[in-house]
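Final report, Chapter 2: Outcomes

The project's central promise was a pipeline that accepts a single protein chain and returns its three-dimensional structure in a standardized token representation, suitable for archiving and comparison. That pipeline is now operational. To close this chapter, we reproduce one record exactly as it appears in the project archive, with the input sequence first and the structure output second.
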Amino acid sequence: MESFTLTRRDMAHLLLAMEGRSDLQPLAVLQDAWRRTHSHLARSGSTMPTFLYTEVTPVLDKIIKGKHSAAFSLQEIVSLGQLVEYSHVSLASMQNWVKRDFKEFLGAPKIGKKYSVNQAAILLIVEDLKSCLDFESIRQLFYILFQQPEDDTDDLIQPVDLYAAYSTLFEELDANGDQLLDVTGAGYAKDNGNSATGQKRQEAATEELLVQAADQYTCRLQHLTPNQCEAVRNTLLVAAVSVQNSYFLSMARRYVNATLFLDFQG
């Protein structure tokens, strides 16, 4: 069966919709995401047969039927995370994050025995950032962004807004959807044969592109000081790079698995 796959921006929109902070209903977010990836089927009139063979997980089933609130069990957060393209979420990992590695930022479930949208977003952010950073570095960033973990009112930015911001930033900089940032190459290396200079120009262009895009977002956060804005901007940049790195890690895993499974030793 085909898997139901969402981009990170789709997931962010879904979480915001479930919290009532979107013009769209959660079902509409899922419908838009599915139609976008199956636009070729709409023209041929074969959307119904295709969706019939699309795997609908229990948490998706609840959302489709309008029976899900903005509160999640840990298993539901894992199920949502597994819908995100190029992610490798596991229940065991998230249990460790909740109980040990990021306990101070997550705390106990905030809605009865279930986790809030922001708590779910923190787990999804950790999943992305760990492709580039160690856990201690992630915790240090979280202390800067979320201040006192037990007090949500002092956050520089809410976790779900951070998740939405960097996922949107990445997709806007990857307009052709090839999972690579659309940086206009300097082309200098080919012109003069100086590959080192060309590489430096390419690196500078990539960094400048990310900084400018992140600045466009943080300039709207007028309640923050300049230093706080810079902290949010830098985190957006790191997170966007982590998203791209997740694609390369996923590709590497696929090739390792294929090599081991096909057993080329003979």
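Archive annotation: Residues 226-262 form the longest helix (37 residues).
This record, like all others produced under the grant, will remain available to the consortium after the project formally closes.
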